[in-house]
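FORM 7B: Structural annotation worksheet

SECTION A. Query
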Amino acid sequence: MRLFDRQVRVAIGEGGGPGFEIGAVGANGIPLHIKFAFEKADVGSPNTGKVTIWNLNREHLSELEKKDCVVVVRAGYADSITEAFKGTVTHASTSKEGADRMTEIELSSNMVELRDTGFSLSYAEGTKTDVIYREIAAQMGLPMSKSHGAVMQSTVLAAGFSFVGGAKNLLNCLTRIDGINWTIQDGIIQLLKPGEPISLSGYELNAASGLIGVPKRVNVSAAGGSSKGGSETAGQEGESAQLGWEVTYLMNLAIGVNSYVHISSEAVEGYFRVQKISIEGDNYEGDWMCKATVLEVTGA
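SECTION B. Predicted structure
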């Protein structure tokens, strides 16, 4: 197939149910046209995305109208495709584009878990915050991962602990006590010491592994936003303003937010933590790449 055998599959179903999947080559030898753009960042709010699909049939469109419809996008090359984004539909609309119908779908990741998981907890004196994190993960139905520094930050609650409210407020409360940050990335709750990658198992980014062009220096404010062309992104607590790099590379979905990467280029070489990723793809034309903002990891 033209364009390096780009492959994308989109599964759509109510509440993550069976639904249907599109993207494979049809009876006419041509897949449906699919375009997508996702934004993932090291923040406590859901990641967001947009998928545009041309010429969905009525059955497909009716599935999108169901409550809390879930869309899973997988992408890659040839026979190797990986999940790029999973989210709940927040808005979908269809319009005419010449002789075609164009459906635009807006998504939010883990919105349902954050919205619908409520807590009423009470723990005795001497309980460690680790115990409560495990309860949060169990009730939200999500796995949890910790950076090395976050593992070491568990606090003994000398006066006990009680809480009534939603998941986001509970995570904010506990991580503030421990002096760490939290985010949900690709369906996993991450707990991190400020500035740390989630793991020291990393990825190499250079010209041979897909790095495009020369990394660009950017100033990342204390609020987490980049001063170079782009919207501000709310940052995590405990991180001061610092210089970072904006890197562009061929689509590699193994690299996620808070991944550990080593960059080798004529502009910079070193170890970095991924703070933000934009993923863009189109199986007919245009971009098929990732753009990341990375911050230096000291002492690596």
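SECTION C. Observations
Residues 129-140 form the longest helix (12 residues). The longest strand covers residues 80-97.

SECTION D. Sign-off
Analyst initials: ____
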